[in-house]
Amino acid sequence: MKVVKFGGSSLASGVQVEKVYQIVSSDPERKIVVVSAPGKRYADDEKVTDLLISCAERCLKGEDTHDLVDTIVGRYQSIAEELHLADTIIRKVKDDLLSLLASDKTNPSAFIEAVKASGEDNNAKLVAACFKHKGLNAHYVSPKEAGLLVSNEPGNAQVLPESYERLYALRDQPGIIVFPGFFGYNTDGEVVTFSRSGSDITGSILANGVKADLYENFTDVDAVYAVNPHLVSHPREICELTYREMRELSYGGFSVFHDEALIPAFRVGIPVNVKNTNNPEAPGTRIVSERKIRTGRLSELLVTTASAAYTSANTS
User: Which residues form the Aspartate/glutamate/uridylate kinase domain (predicted)?
Assistant: First the structure.
């Protein structure tokens, strides 16, 4: 069984979601699909998560949010129309957002958490609808239903140990599970988000919970590189890294992979494969407990402290 996570750039448009469908349907081992909110379609575009945060903050100030609501819903509508999905999914997205904006605001932090997490939640519902429309046996599962419990630390949630036993039951569910990334629920039943790029964390937690054979993290580059490809032409791709090396790169501030996302998978020895949604046949970079391909010490991969390794930061 594989857990597969797709970042925001991989889900930014109907064309990209179609690629995700092709990737998932091509491998029957890809049973759990974790999705981010729609990301940027082009350089000057805005991520849906950022739009939702702005919308929540404006709502707390008592300011008008109609334009932002229309923009956010319009992003989902554009994707749905490209995929020829029924209008019902968009009505659900809009109703959900309006309901959240009208909800209790006595705890502003909890209010913002719930609104910004809706980006992933509604995208998971849309992706599940796309898969079903195309004939896959797929369904949406919420973190609450699955039992993903987290600490009450808004924007920095930590998974609670009892979650893993609950999540193991996902193995027995038939078909493909589409699961929203980025958030879980505290013991009071409130939404609490991980840090930004937290869908990476969700994927790793689920991989641990279901004891997956592999955690695939799809982004928008072919691999982790030995140098920043913006600074060097045709940089060398790194085929394998150890968990320790990848974490060292993350600690150094490199946009490689969400550091916390490595921990749940690492604890149970599940390998991680960083791959490209736009070029899924590329082998990508495999992150393992112990590297079989001897490429020298990590320090030998470093060209400068600022450009040691690179992968897209366009995930959420």
Answer: 2-276
CATH number at residue 213: 3.40.1160.10
Is 83 a domain residue? no
**In Å, how far are 44, 163, 215, 245, 310 from 170, measured between CA atoms?**
38, 12, 15, 31, 33
Q: Which of 36, 10, 1 is nearest to 180 (CA)?
A: 36
Does a structural domain hold residue 131? yes
Does the residue 105 lie in any domain? no
Amino acid at the residue 36 = S
Total domains present in the chain: 1
Write out the residue range of the structural domain in which residue 270 sits: 2-37+124-301
Assigned domain for 226 exists: yes
pLDDT tens, 261-314? 889 999 999 999 999 999 999 999 999 988 765 655 554 454 443 444 444 444
